[in-house]
Amino acid sequence: MDVFEALYTTRAMRRVKEDSIPDDVIKSIMDSAIRAPSGSNRQDWKFLVVTDKKTREELADIYRETWDYYVKSFYNDSEDLGASSLKNKDEIETVKRISNSASWLAENYHKVPLLVLAFSRNDPTGSSIYPAIWNLMLAARGHGVGTCLTTVMNFKTEDVYKVLNVPSDKGWTLNATITAGYPLGKWGVAARKPVEEVTYLNKWGESPDWNLTEPLWNY
Ligand SMILES: Cc1cc2nc3c(=O)[nH]c(=O)nc-3n(C[C@H](O)[C@H](O)[C@H](O)COP(=O)(O)O)c2cc1C
User: Fold this and answer.
1) Of ligand 1's atoms, which has the minimum distance to the CA of residue 14?
2) For residue range 108-121, what is the model confidence (pLDDT) as tens digits?
3) What atom of ligand 1 comes closest to residue 153's alpha carbon?
């Protein structure tokens, strides 16, 4: 796959089939993930690949609990993640789409065939793990596997560590969990704010005159 197709179309693919992912594909995804850079090339990371049904079910219970906690704490228990309190029609649609898809994941988490938990240590900013996570997601995209980066289980790491036998005295921190499976829906270019709205040229506040209203890559 062209690298730009992967970059433009790797997006939160939460709705996935239950079909398991072949070992060769999992191996390729993980081998791509660990090619990523890390601060001083320390690679002080571990990836826990979970395919076992019972373990996935145990994690699904934790995910649901933490998702509910997240919605309660950060969205005042609003199930549509605050969509109904917005005024702009497009924004309402976007937030509703995300909340439907995120609720689907919480309800169906136990059916997701592959979970990868990313851990790191000796990394006070917690940033060294993210290039590897993004490599993982791009490699999955290359294999036609949809992924979603999730972090809500970080609210209950003790429960997660218990399920997975993660030692509590070795300094490992759970940074994120990537869900993965073959998509139920279609791939598409991720909708984002135009580049000129979020990019300045040379000085803060000076937008480049690039005339980019549409993505430069599209189907
Ligand atoms: C740091 C981070 C944490 C995230 N945590 C969650 C999560 O816990 N649960 C979830 O369903 N989605 C989570 N997401 C997915 C985002 O909601 C998603 O990437 C965003 O809405 C863009 O989606 P799109 O690429 O399909 O447009 C997270 C994404 C990032 C980058």
Assistant:
1) 11
2) 999 999 999 999 99
3) 8
